[in-house]
Design brief:
Largest sheet: 2 strands, antiparallel
Helix content: over 70%
Strand content: under 5%
Radius of gyration: 19 Å
Number of domains: 1
Length: about 230
């Protein structure tokens, strides 16, 4: 069987979704069985001042900077970002893409909330950290930021044929996703396994909607290749 590059891309993406869901399943199973407790505690305590679990290591300005970074994955910030992205897409006549992004982010947020309720894992028992309102597993900041940033990165990458720009867009999306997740661990509001689970499921969710978008574009005969970038 001879596959063209679009078919190969779809099958590669499907394999990626399967791997990411597998990672989430394995982590969730270990968490339920309590087999990650020692690892989670060791990582969190390594980032706290010995004898003072309410204080993260490093100078005060680092903790403040990390709080700023973690805000990038908060629901209000992501909601503002998505709103502006959707407005831009709607104003340029890309209603289908706007609907796809909105569906990805909204459904991903719902799934994150439902899973938190089902697993109902208590937050790390540290005092003096940022106030939290939901259960611990999976990390909502990590999952929803992965869905949002990676979906937007994929959309931006689809607007150009230049490899260097695609690398920039995906690199920025991945970097923001990683930074938000790591900030949750540093602040002590999430266990490492919460964040890993959020990353894997969020990336799988974004990748799944990327596949769906390509399938819908192919069915409608739309050209998703983007501009020629000849002027670049």
């Amino acid at each position: 069987m001879n596959w063209n590059w679009k078919q190969k891309r779809v099958y590669t993406a499907l394999a990626g979704v399967a791997v990411l869901l597998g990672i989430f399943g394995i982590v969730a199973d270990y968490v339920v069985e309590g087999e990650t407790h020692a690892f989670d505690e060791a990582v969190l305590l390594s980032l706290r001042v010995p004898g003072h679990p309410d204080q993260p290591i490093g100078p005060h300005w680092v903790a403040e900077a990390v709080r700023d970074v973690t805000a990038l994955g908060s629901y209000p910030v992501l909601a503002l970002l998505i709103t502006f992205v959707l407005l831009q897409l709607l104003l340029t006549g890309r209603r289908g893409t706007a609907l796809l992004i909105a569906s990805s982010v909204v459904s991903g947020t719902i799934v994150s909330t439902v899973l938190k309720t089902l697993f109902d894992r208590p937050r790390p028992d540290l005092t003096g950290v940022a106030e939290v309102f939901t259960a611990s597993f999976p990390s909502g900041h990590s999952m929803v930021s992965a869905v949002t940033f990676l979906t937007i990165g994929a959309i931006l990458a689809g607007t150009t044929r230049l490899i260097r720009l695609r690398i920039l867009y995906f690199g920025a999306a991945v970097s923001l996703t990683l930074l938000v997740g790591l900030s949750r661990i540093y602040l002590g509001v999430h266990y490492p396994t919460d964040v890993i689970a959020g990353w894997s499921l969020g990336a799988a969710w974004a990748l799944g909607f990327f596949i769906l978008g390509n399938a819908l574009a192919a069915a409608s005969g739309a050209d998703r290749a983007g501009p020629t970038d000849a002027e670049a």
